[in-house]
Structure formats: structure tokens, C-alpha cells
Amino acid sequence: MHAQEVSSTPASNPVQRLLKEKMDVALSSPVMKSFLAGALSGSLSTLLLQPLDLVKTRLQSPVYIGTNTGMMHVVINVVRQEKFLALWNGVWPSLMRCAPGVGLYFGTLHYLRSNFGSLNPKALESLCMGMTARSIAGVLMLPITVIKTRYESGAFKYRGLTSALVVTYKAEGFRGLYSGLAPTLLRDVPFSGIYLMFYTRLQLYTKPSMVGGGMEPLVDFCNGVMAGALASIVTQPADVIKTNIQLHPKKHRHLKQVLIYIYQKRGLGGFWRGIVPRTLRRTVMTAMAWTVFEEIMRRCKLK
Is 272 within 8 Å of 44 (Cβ atoms)? Predict the structure, then answer.
């Protein structure tokens, strides 16, 4: 018995060493480091800013879309009727979406920059790379986005993320899990492209004077806020359309239907419903994500 145990140990060691070597190689990859840095930054910003996303979703839902309700009124209603922690409803699917989604975005972006990008990218190059990276992440993570939106609306009661995916698939099929794909891409793809274009331009003009002064994280954050605000305003209508389609996919099967519905309820102003909480969340969240990402990449001596 003892001899068998001794003889089996050497056989297992090469396998363990091989697995460890493969894992070390994977973790040392610049793309994997970009993915992990993005996932960490996305997780931190999601946990902090989830209430703003919930308020934005409620404001865009049919319950409020025909009213003059403001974001503070929604916050008070949620706290009174559902308790304070209800402001973090949907945080789990948000994390499940944002952590791998942001990681995938940064990993893809690093790969594109390393293999196809130039040292000093032009505005059009940044626009295209940001849009490509977001397209890949957006399509892969859309089912989680649908569940997140429904959690935040308060109109859907799910027992958990897996249960929500199963229930949605059984009731609506893949069409339900990918409801709002077009407006989601119309919102996120231009947002990421416009954001990266503005961000890289701002970085180009502000970085040289700050290098070595220990001000890099602050500069990254300020540049992220300015780029995020501009990109959020441009893409707000697509966000309103996306929310309405994902909350009521059977009612709004076509883009034309939801466009008419929003316009009849609130006019052109309805397409900018929820712009304040969304802009606050997207600007701060994206700025935080880029600041953490940039700092990790600096410490890893990657760029």
C-alpha cells in the first residue's frame, strides 16, 4: 500500500506542474492582465453606483414615463416601500455583467491596440477600437443585461440569476434573453467609441504636464468624467428605448413601436428621461473603471 502511494506521487507531480505552468503563462499574458484589471475596476464601480442605475431604470419604466417624477422621489419611494437595501436590487446581475463585461472590454481593447493600433492613435482609430471592443462584450453579456434591467424595475420577482435566465428562456426563448439587442448596441457601441475618442484626446493633452508628479490617477479620473458626460448625452435616447424593450418585449416587438410609445407619452423629452442618474452613474463609473485600470496597468508596467 505504501509503495503504491509513493509510486503514484511522482506521476501526479508532472501534471500539477504542467497545470501550474499553464496558469502562470495565462496570468502573465498582457491581455489577461487587462481583463483582470478591467474586471476589478468594473466590480468596484458597480457596487458603489448601483442605486443610480436602479433609479434610472425606474424613471424610464412605464410606471413613471408619463409623469414628472424626479430621481429623489424615486429614491424616497424605494426606501419607504422596499427598504434602503432595495436601492441595490439587481446588484448581483450587475456584477455578473460588469465584472466580466468590463474585463472583456479592456482585454479586447488591449489586444486590438497591441496588434492593430498605433503609438499615438488618431481620433477615428480610437473610435473604431472602442466600438469594436464594446460590440464583442455587449453581445456576449446581453442576457445578463436583460435580467439586470428587470431586477431593477421592481416589476419582476426572480429567485436568483440562474432562475431568472431559465424562466426568461422558457417563457420567451432566446428572443427574450436578447431583447433590446439593437438599442443596446446603438447605445453602448457609440458610447464606448465616443468615450475612448474623447478620453484619448484628453489624455494626450493633459498627460505630458503631469507625468512624475503623482497626479496621474486624478488626471485619469477627470478626463474620464469629461469624456463620459459627453458620450452619455449623445447616447441617452438609445438607453431609454433599450429599457422599454427589455421590460416589455412582447409589447414592444419592433423599434418603431417603442419610438411611437415614448413620443406619445412624453414627446421628444421622453427620450432623455433618466439622463441625470444615468449620466452621473456612467461618468463616475467609467471614470473609476479607467482610473483603476490605468493604475493597475502602470504598476504592471503594461500599456
Answer: no
